[in-house]
C-alpha cells in the first residue's frame, strides 16, 4: 500500500443493502438484532479493508441503539465510512436505514454504531494505515467526535486493567 497517499472520508464510503426475509426473524416475528449487527460489521469490515488495502479485524463495537423494529419486507441499508484513522486502527461510523420493499417510503433511521477496526498483517499483527484527510465541515466534526470516543474507550480499558491489577 502507498501509505503516503491520504484518503478523504467520502472516498471510503460503502453502502450495503439486504432485503429481510422470514429467515432473519426472531421468535417475535421481527428481525433479529444480531442480523443487523452482522450487516453493520460486514459494512465496517469492507470499509476498513478498502481503506487499509488488506485484512482488518473488529476490535470493538460501541453501544448500538435499536431505534425502531425491522420487519420482513424491509430493505435494510447500511452506510459506513471511516471517521478517524490512527496508526493501525480506524473508527468506522455506520448508519442503518430501512425502506419498505414495495413502497416509495422515506428511509427510516433504525440504528447507528461506531466500530474500531484494526488493520492486520498475515500473522494477525496490527499494521500501519494511511492518514485520513477530513475535508468537509461534517467530516471534521465526525473526526473530532471520533477522537473523543477513542479517548473514552482507551481510558475505560486502562481503568478496568488498573482495577483488576489492584483487586
Ligand atoms: C484488535 C487486535 C489486532 C489489537 O491487537 P493489540 O496487540 O492489542 O494491538 P495494539 O494494542 O497495538 O492496538 C492496535 C490499535 O488498536 C487500537 N485498539 C485496540 N483495542 C482497542 C479498543 N478496545 N478500543 C479502541 N482502540 C483499540 C489501539 O489503540 C491501536 O490503535 P492505533 O495503532 O491506531 O493507535 C487484537 O486484539 C485482536 O486480534 N483481536 C481480535 C479481533 C477479532 O478477531 N475480531 C473479530 C471477532 S470475531
Automatic annotation (TrEMBL):
GO terms for molecular function: long-chain fatty acyl-CoA hydrolase activity. Residues 133-153 are annotated as: Disordered. SUPFAM superfamilies: Thioesterase/thiol ester dehydrase-isomerase (SSF54637). Residues 133-149 have a biased composition (Basic and acidic residues). Keywords: Hydrolase. CDD domains: BFIT_BACH. Residues 10-123 form the HotDog ACOT-type domain. GO terms for cellular component: cytosol. GO terms for biological process: acyl-CoA metabolic process. It holds the Pfam family 4HBT. Gene3D superfamilies: Hotdog Thioesterase. Belongs to the acyl coenzyme A hydrolase family. PANTHER family: ACYL COENZYME A THIOESTER HYDROLASE, PROTEIN VDLD. This is Acyl-CoA hydrolase. It comes from Luteipulveratus halotolerans.
Amino acid at each position: 500500500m502507498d501509505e503516503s497517499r491520504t484518503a478523504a472520508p467520502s472516498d471510503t464510503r460503502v453502502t450495503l443493502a439486504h432485503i429481510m426475509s422470514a429467515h432473519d426473524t426472531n421468535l417475535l416475528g421481527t428481525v433479529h438484532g444480531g442480523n443487523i449487527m452482522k450487516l453493520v460489521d460486514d459494512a465496517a469490515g469492507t470499509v476498513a479493508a478498502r481503506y487499509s488495502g488488506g485484512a482488518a479485524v473488529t476490535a470493538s463495537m460501541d453501544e448500538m441503539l435499536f431505534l425502531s423494529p425491522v420487519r420482513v419486507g424491509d430493505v435494510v441499508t447500511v452506510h459506513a465510512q471511516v471517521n478517524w484513522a490512527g496508526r493501525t486502527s480506524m473508527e468506522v461510523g455506520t448508519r442503518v436505514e430501512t425502506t419498505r420493499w414495495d413502497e416509495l417510503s422515506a428511509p427510516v433511521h433504525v440504528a447507528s454504531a461506531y466500530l474500531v477496526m484494526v488493520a492486520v498483517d498475515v500473522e494477525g499483527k496490527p499494521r500501519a494505515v494511511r492518514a485520513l484527510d477530513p475535508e468537509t465541515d461534517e467530516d471534521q466534526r465526525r473526526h473530532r467526535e471520533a477522537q473523543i470516543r477513542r479517548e473514552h474507550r482507551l481510558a475505560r480499558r486502562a481503568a478496568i486493567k488498573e482495577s483488576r491489577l489492584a483487586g
